[in-house]
């Protein structure tokens, strides 16, 4: 074949100087050209082959780079969800669609708020703040009957009405006295008792609940909430190295672990409430009748599952610092607390979310609390003056909506009222001065003042630029 045929195969236009022929041996993998061309043609052939090889290597390199780029690509998958192509409905807000919504929300929320307020008003409740009983009440002997009137700022009550057989005038009295209290040791403890007398003007139907209410006590503090060991409360004998969550109350100076450890258990509310005693009962064989209340059933069933009898040996553990007066000689097999059945402890360990809270202490689910004069004696142990808080005794009933709390009802009524007022205002505005949808005359550049247009370099239509 002529040389120009080989040049045609290589994609090179033939040259008139080529007069030689090439014998090409066709083999499975490559061509073996034998040159019979001139020296210039043979050099041209070699140069062309070199360029072809370089181009091939360049293409291979680009393909390799593209493969690497594709491997590193973090583009989301091409799906409707990942590429945000799901069908959506975007309503156009017009007066005809928005104004009815205001009235609908108002019509729904206002009656619900009214029902919540009505349910809250059905709760009958009496509250007495006894924080300053030790300092302000008359300090008498244990057998004294002299009581002092409690200042009105420390008392509050809410009753639907008054029973015709009982006095409707609120009466609140208190006195203070000291006793020697012996717990689990032979060491008596001097304890202050606050005795409260109050009248209930109407019968309280069961369930009748007795709460203690604390203010300015931040059980929701992060460090306080985390200061416990759940495995220890479930009965496991945890070694000292695993009680870090209870710090700084994980072990005593001698290396014994506190049980239960942590800040929550150490600060347990330790005031004790005696059962209310009905005074001056004329139609009974006894002059005073005790209204029996119990601590059973005050904790949630879910709380009880968090506690179990401990596997510690009593000699290997020590009470928390604030429990010392109750366990001055430490733990023994006879006085070791049973946290699984101590519902008052379980109630305290369920921390409150707000600094002002109430916790259930006693209840009576069967008997009506008759309208009368009652007396409750309280062992005044829990200190609240050191952190500027208060503590109160609360006796209350409840409804299907819970205890007395008008906040939710007020919030619903307020939202419903605001929606109705806004709906009426916008409706009047729409009727007096309607606005066409998509009116371009309200666009900002159609309302610019001449000074603004000049300052921004924008010439208004019909005006020549300066």
TrEMBL record:
Parts of the chain that traverse the membrane: 97-119, 407-428
Protein name from the UniProt record: Uncharacterized protein
GO cellular component: endoplasmic reticulum; Golgi apparatus; plasma membrane
Record keyword Transmembrane present: yes
Subcellular location(s) of the protein: Membrane
GO biological process: phospholipid translocation
Main localization of the protein described in the UniProt heading: membrane
Xref: PANTHER family: CDC50, ISOFORM A, CELL CYCLE CONTROL PROTEIN 50
Family recorded in the similarity comment: Belongs to the CDC50/LEM3 family.
Lineage: superkingdom: Eukaryota
Membrane topology label: Multi-pass membrane protein
Keyword Transmembrane belongs to the record: yes
One Pfam family this sequence matches: CDC50
Regions of compositional bias (Basic and acidic residues) in chain numbering: 57-69
Entry keyword set: Membrane, Transmembrane, Transmembrane helix
Start and end residues of each stretch annotated as Disordered: 52-79
InterPro entries: CDC50/LEM3_fam
């Amino acid at each position: 074949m002529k040389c120009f045929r080989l040049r045609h195969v290589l994609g090179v236009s033939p040259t008139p100087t080529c007069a030689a022929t090439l014998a090409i041996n066709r083999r499975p993998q490559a061509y073996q050209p034998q040159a019979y061309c001139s020296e210039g043609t043979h050099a041209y052939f070699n140069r062309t082959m070199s360029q072809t090889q370089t181009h091939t290597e360049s293409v291979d390199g680009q393909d390799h780079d593209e493969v690497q780029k594709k491997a590193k690509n973090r583009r989301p998958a091409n799906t409707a969800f990942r590429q945000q192509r799901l069908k959506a409905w975007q309503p156009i807000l017009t007066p005809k669609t928005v104004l009815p919504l205001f009235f609908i929300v108002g019509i729904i929320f206002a009656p619900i708020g009214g029902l919540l307020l009505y349910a809250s008003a059905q709760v009958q409740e009496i509250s007495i703040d006894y924080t300053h009983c030790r300092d302000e009440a008359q300090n008498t002997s244990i057998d004294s009957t002299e009581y002092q009137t409690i200042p009105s700022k420390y008392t509050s009550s809410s009753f639907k009405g008054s029973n015709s057989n009982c006095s409707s005038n609120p009466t609140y009295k208190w006195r203070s006295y000291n006793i020697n209290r012996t717990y689990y040791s032979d060491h008596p403890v001097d304890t202050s008792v606050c005795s409260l007398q109050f009248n209930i003007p109407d019968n309280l139907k069961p369930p009748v609940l007795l709460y203690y209410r604390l203010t300015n006590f931040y059980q929701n503090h992060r460090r306080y909430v985390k200061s416990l060991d759940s495995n220890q409360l479930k009965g496991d004998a945890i070694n000292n190295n695993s009680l870090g969550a209870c710090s700084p109350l994980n072990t005593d100076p001698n290396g014994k672990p506190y049980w239960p450890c942590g800040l929550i258990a150490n600060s347990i509310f330790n005031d004790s409430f005696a059962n209310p005693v009905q005074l001056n009962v004329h139609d009974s064989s006894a002059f005073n009748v005790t209204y029996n209340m119990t601590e059973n059933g005050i904790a949630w069933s879910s709380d009880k599952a968090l506690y179990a009898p401990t596997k510690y040996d009593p000699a290997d553990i020590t009470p928390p610092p604030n429990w010392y007066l109750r366990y001055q000689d430490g733990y023994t097999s006879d006085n070791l607390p049973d946290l699984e059945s101590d519902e008052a402890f379980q109630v305290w360990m369920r921390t409150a979310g707000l600094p002002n809270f109430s916790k259930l202490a006693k209840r009576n689910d069967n008997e009506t609390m008759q309208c009368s004069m009652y007396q409750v004696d309280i062992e005044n142990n829990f200190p609240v003056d050191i952190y500027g808080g208060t503590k109160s005794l609360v006796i209350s009933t409840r409804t299907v909506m819970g205890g007395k709390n008008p906040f939710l009802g007020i919030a619903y009524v307020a939202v419903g009222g605001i929606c109705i007022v806004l709906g009426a205002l916008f409706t009047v505005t729409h009727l007096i001065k309607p606005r066409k949808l998509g009116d371009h005359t309200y666009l900002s550049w159609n309302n610019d003042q001449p000074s603004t247009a000049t300052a921004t370099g924008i010439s208004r239509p019909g005006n020549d630029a300066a």
